[in-house]
Amino acid sequence: METISIKMLTSPEDLTLVKNLESLVWADEDPVPVSHSIAVVKNGGMVIGAFSDDQLIGFQYSFPGFDGTNVYLCSHSMGIHPDFRKMGIGEKLKLKQREEALKKGYNLIGWTYDPLETVNGYLNLSKLGGVCTQYIENCYGDMPDILNAGMPSDRFLVEWRITEEPVSGHLEVNENGDGPLLINVAIDEQGFPVPESVHLNYGNDANVLYVPVPSHIQAIKTDRMSAALEWRLKTREVFSHYLNKGWMVTALRKSQKPYLYYYILQKRD
Questions:
Q1: pLDDT tens digits for 192-220?
Q2: Which of 158, 164, 163, 167 is CA-nearest to residue 74?
Q3: Ranges assigned E (strand) in the chain
Q4: 3-class secondary-structure state, position 126
Q5: Cα dist. 157→17, 101, 154, 204, 261 in Å?
Q6: What is the pLDDT at residue 190?
Q7: pTM, two decimal places
């Protein structure tokens, strides 16, 4: 079992390690410059590192945000070394981020993520207790890195209200996704889940709605990009419609079907 340590990073040497890991994680030829990272940590932001002995294996990078009314912490990026994934390092980094954000006086942390990346969704919503009220189409434009190439960069905007109880903790939902299902799913001849018809007429009497998403979108992209694009467009249609109608996304639950997860939608107060 690896011993993982989490610490705040401020020195040019440590921030250079972050730059190098960022390039590895996303095959990025243009990572955040060290001079920029230094300025961020000196002006209300933070860079957090996860170490295995002396090796940097994960990082989280945040800077101050302002929407014209409220100051918040903008959680811009988090990356984990490929050899150290599925070890809970992302959650450790986020919990350290919350701890340090509270010390600085923040009560809100915001960030974006791809709703088809279920590992991120499960962490952001079901573990940390964030909620999503906005769906942003092609948020970053065309992105050529290995995780995003070939797909519009649609994103959920996560609101993590770090001084409040999670909304998802008060939900009673059916773990099997039985109930108003907003996308019908079929299995194609290659064994991939594919989205079929969408339903935009639910919600008058329901308290909870379910949106299925595939468990492994990157594998679908590799073997059948057309199916991945269909998932993008169908989920975009559903999430945009319901979030604009006053719903919010509060959790992501594993399905009994290994190829599906379910997003949980709840009406906003």
A1: 899 999 999 886 678 899 999 999 999 99
A2: 158
A3: 4-8, 46-52, 55-66, 71-80, 108-113, 131-136, 155-161, 183-187, 193-198, 208-214, 247-254, 260-267
A4: helix
A5: 28, 18, 10, 25, 19
A6: 83
A7: 0.91
